[in-house]
Amino acid sequence: MEVEAPFNLDVQTGLCLAFALSFMPIAYVLGQFLIPASHPRNRFLFFWHAYDALTHIFIEGSFLYECFFSFAPIAEIHNKAPYFSQFLNRPDRLYGAAYGTGPSARLWQEYAKADRRWAGADITVISLELLTVFIGGPLAIYICYLLFKSSNVGISAKARGSAKATLWFCSVMLATAELYGGFMTFAPEWLTGCSQLATEDPVYLWLYLFFFNTLWVFVPIWVLWEAGKELKDAFIGQEVLSSERKKI
Predict the structure, then answer these.
(1) Residue 73 pairs with which residues in a beta bridge?
(2) Whole-prediction pTM value?
(3) What is the arithmetic mean of pLDDT over 233-240?
(4) Rounded CA gap, 217 and 39, in Å?
(5) Cα separation, 197 vs 115, whole angstroms
(6) Rounded to the nearest 10 degrees, how much is the dihedral formed by the CA atoms of 42, 26, 173, 183?
């Protein structure tokens, strides 16, 4: 396995990290502005799904852009590993961020120091990211809208209840997809001895691989837990109401 150079915090690396983290304060401010303080859980859920949407659409969307539009002729590349050919039925080209020159290419070149698959056109990763960017991102935006609507005391209780039901249905869908996507991203590496992961450097291991990925494990698990409680309360409430009606 190729050993990566140790982490070096230069200007370009700092800008990449700043951009990757910049969506957190944006999502936080949106949540504070759009969700009333009387709904702290909804504020956090809004923050998370707004950050989720921004990350999927802009950061991971840029990964797909590099995979489809950044390439180099194989004839000019002496060492093809660890990047991949036979993408888009073009065996004469190598695709991926490794062959781009723009800011988004630099961003993924940086992350690829921890996980080499993101420098090239890994078919499994691209397939997952197509779902994440074009379904997961818009779904997260829709959940933010439902959180805003279900927290709005200016609309009828029936409308808020309908929004809340749809909210938790969609939240379960997205949280399950996030967990599945994370498993399918890293399970192949676990089963092959992490051949493409740089686990020797603590920054690559704990910041790039652990922090930036386990956010999409811990928070979706919590979302599923909260959805389970909402479902339980709804069924209990319905059963109590049915019992009271029968007594009348």
Answers:
(1) 93
(2) 0.90
(3) 83
(4) 24
(5) 5
(6) -130
